[in-house]
Design a protein that fits this description.
The protein is mostly helical and about 120 residues long. It has one domain.
Length: about 120
Amino acid sequence: MEYLNAFLCGGLLCLIGQVLIDRTQLTPARILTGYVVAGVILQAIGVYQAVVDWGGAGATVPLLGFGYALAKGVARAVEEQGALGVITGGLGATAGGITAAMLMGLLAALIARPGYKR
């Protein structure tokens, strides 16, 4: 059942993004940024944790999940460090994902041998 919930949750989030691309003048970059901000806002008001509990990886892997991780990291760091946690918490909570994305990008660049097209 966890796999089905993750599939449904992630699919619904992707469906919403596709509808926004098809039906609005928003660029994909703005939609992606909006997803991150929405994840932060939904976690800040306490709604996104219920989505994560139901959807599992379907809720934490997309960009809404990145915003959720940022907000959760900041909240935890503020409890532990005070005001300094506002600056350090988000990066500390997402450092693993950011590092993995950079390393995978580097690996893809080494395998694909990118270059300028003429």
